[in-house]
Specification:
The chain has two domains: about 55 residues, no CATH class; about 180 residues, OB fold (Dihydrolipoamide Acetyltransferase, E2P) (Beta Barrel), CATH 2.40.50.140. The chain has six helices and 13 strands. Helix content is about 30%, strand content about 35%. It is of the alpha+beta class. It is globular, with a radius of gyration of 19 Å. Bound molecules: zinc ion (ZN).
């Protein structure tokens, strides 16, 4: 049964932490913070810190990370390190589909906000894309909303996860010199901020920059989903990505 530290309180359109939960106000009015659909309830047991839980996985939206079982950290790392062709394909299937589901949730949110025909069409084509990819068993890759990243940061360091949500993305170019060969090379840093606050950055190598340029770019404060390895650099979060294809914009 999926468990949660935060619940979405529909009436005020905000998340409620366990310590702020009040039976009289929130009982039967709280939902999954990711899909905003599955009802949650508080679980209080002796000798255990209270937590939120949903009744079943099936009550979540299919695009929610709590709808399916998670791939274990060990199995995910095994796939990433494997040179076996079949493992590589399965890994790409999992990453593509997990990213796509995060993007689907963002589209859903966007569609709700400005119910336009245009977003409805892009939603339909994306869903078709997803349906055609069902060749392997789907498992969830842990996903964290960019808004929750800092409070969860210790928990995810040295883990492969998906970060998703709405952010302002700034890209900065730097020239560097290789200390051994003396050759000049370029790097690009993508800085993800929410309401002006730094959340994390991604550093692209010279080779990745070429591919990044081919991606449809993120406009101001737009939706994204990205898969990578979380690292801490002097207290700042960095995400190491395997390929620019693991960074998707809405
Ligand atoms: Zn959910």
């Amino acid at each position: 049964m999926p468990t949660f530290e935060e619940a979405y309180y529909k009436i005020e359109n905000k998340n409620i932490e366990i310590k702020d939960y009040v039976d009289k106000i929130h009982y039967e009015k709280i939902y999954c913070p990711e899909c905003l659909t599955a009802p949650l309830h508080i679980v209080r047991k002796q000798n255990v810190f209270p937590y939120y839980a949903s009744n079943s996985k099936q009550e979540h939206l299919e695009d929610c990370q709590h709808y399916e079982d998670y791939i274990t950290k060990k199995n995910l790392n095994k796939l990433i390190e494997s040179k076996n062709n079949e493992d590589e394909k399965r890994l790409e299937f999992l990453i593509d589909n997990n990213l796509q589901r995060a993007i689907n949730l963002l589209i859903r949110e966007e569609t709700k906000r400005n119910n336009t025909v245009e977003s409805f069409i892009s939603n339909t084509t994306r869903n078709q894309l997803k349906a055609s990819l069902n060749e392997y068993k789907y498992e969830s890759i842990p996903r964290v909303s960019i808004n929750r990243l800092l409070s969860k940061n210790g928990e995810f360091i040295d883990n492969y996860i998906i970060i998703w949500g709405n952010a302002n993305v700034e890209s900065k170019d730097y020239d560097r010199i290789n200390s051994t060969t003396g050759k000049k090379f370029k790097i690009k840093k993508l800085i993800f901020r929410v309401k002006g606050n730094f959340k994390f950055s991604i550093q692209l190598s010279e080779n990745q920059i070429k591919h990044y340029k081919k991606l449809p770019q993120n406009s101001m404060n737009n939706g994204f989903a990205v898969f990578g390895l979380v690292k801490s650099n002097k207290g700042f979060l960095e995400l190491k990505i395997l390929t620019t294809e693991h960074l998707q914009y809405l």
